[in-house]
Amino acid sequence: MSARTLRRRLLATVAVGATAVLTSGCLGLGTAGGYVPTGTLAGPLKDAKRLDGASISVGSKNFSENILLGKMAIILMQSAGASVKDLTNIPGSASARQAMLDDQIQSMWEYTGTGWIVYLGHTKSIPDEQKQYLAVRDEDAKENGLAWLPPAPMNNTYGFAITQKTSKKLGITKLSELKKVPKAQRTFCVESELINRPDGLKGMLEKYDVPLGSEVPRSNLKTYQTGAIYDATAKGACNFGEVFTTDGRIVALDLKVLADDREFFPKYNVALVLTDDTKKKYPQIEDLMAPVTKKLTNEVLLKLNAQIDVNGDEPADVAFQWLKKEGFLTG
Predict the structure, then answer these.
(1) Are domains 3-155+268-330 and 158-257 of this chain identical in fold?
(2) How many CB atoms lie within 10 A of CB 207?
């Protein structure tokens, strides 16, 4: 299995979570629950076909962005008349996937790169976003009876961020410009796991012609836990910090993500996934979600994630207020 299957944030509690699902049924999902508001469909959704009488369980993984998106789906489906069970915040990517395969949940947002590499077991990603989506959609439908709706433009993948000040000082906005940065200034804050992986720092540096060792001395690397990297980069502990490209702390700390202009990192576009039976029974879900999905850009998710992770706002409240702001709901 590819090293990409170790994608840390998504699989941090795989073993425990998967065991919980398999041995305890829905009781092992560790869901978020809580109050989720309902509004009146408006704007492009005003004439959307209703879901009256539908009963659907919506899940999510246990990190802010995925919970936020899960709450959006719940709000929209409830507002269209469905009875929705909130099973967001499932501990671990494998647990969430197994819950869907077992039909404990019928709807969840998933990432194309995760589907292709982690769930379907491929060792190489597909650089083109649309081709990656189509490949995942077709194979998951054939092998597992899961229906991937069209993806959002957002791409929550790995990246390297820099402060605005350092970006101006070094004259760098994209990874291909690392070559012109003086060797002593090629300093990186990363997790230890990412350093030697071919799909991590080592592979990225080779792709951009500044290989680890000869062009980036190992003494230029500083290792941190994931969450500490953002603050360390912002405070100047290094010039380049490993990030996830839709993490709200990028906005909060005024960091700039360097463009991956040679497309080294896999694409992780998010899409709502339904069980095949659910899609066939309620085809109107696709039309309900389509206008919202198209609005989910990296810029939007960066701001919404920051409201949760930096400001401490509740995901359901953030989701509801954004849907109202964009004119999808009133009330």
Answers:
(1) yes
(2) 16
**Beta carbons within 10 angstroms of residue 98's beta carbon:** 22
Residue 50 · residue 80 · CB < 8 Å: yes
CB neighbour list of residue 326: distance below 8 Å, 6 or more residues apart: 43, 292, 295
| Contacts made by residues 297-301, CB under 8 angstroms, sequence distance 24+ | 297/152, 297/153, 297/154, 298/153, 298/154, 298/155, 298/156, 298/245, 298/246, 300/154, 301/65, 301/154, 301/156, 301/246
| CA atoms within a 13 Å half-sphere pointing along the CA-CB vector of 22 | 10
Count CA atoms within 13 Å of residue 136 on its CB side. Answer: 33
**Between the CA of residue 311 and those of 40, 65, 250, 318, what are the distances in Å?**
27, 14, 13, 11
pTM: 0.85
Residue 18, SS3? helix
**Architecture of domain 3-155+268-330 in this structure:** 3-Layer(aba) Sandwich (3.40)
Domain-wise residue ranges, the chain = 3-155+268-330, 158-257
How far is the C-alpha of 276 from the C-alpha of 253, rounded, in Å? 42
Backbone angle region of 171, left / alpha / beta, with phi > 0 → left and psi within -120 to 50 → alpha:
left
Second CATH level (architecture) for the domain 158-257: 3-Layer(aba) Sandwich (3.40)
The lowest-confidence range among 20-34, 64-78, 262-276 is 20-34
| pLDDT per position as a tens digit, 221-256 | 999 987 899 999 999 999 999 999 999 999 999 999
Between strands 146-148 and 240-244, the pairing is unpaired
Token pair in block for residue 233: 């980069």
| CA 298/CA 303 separation, integer angstroms | 9
Mean pLDDT of 162-183: 97
Question: CA 324 to CA 318: how far, in whole Å?
Answer: 10
Report the pLDDT value the prediction gives residue 32, as an integer from 0 to 100.
55
Q: Choose among 298, 242, 243: nearest CA to 270.
A: 298
pLDDT in tens, 206-219: 999 999 999 999 99
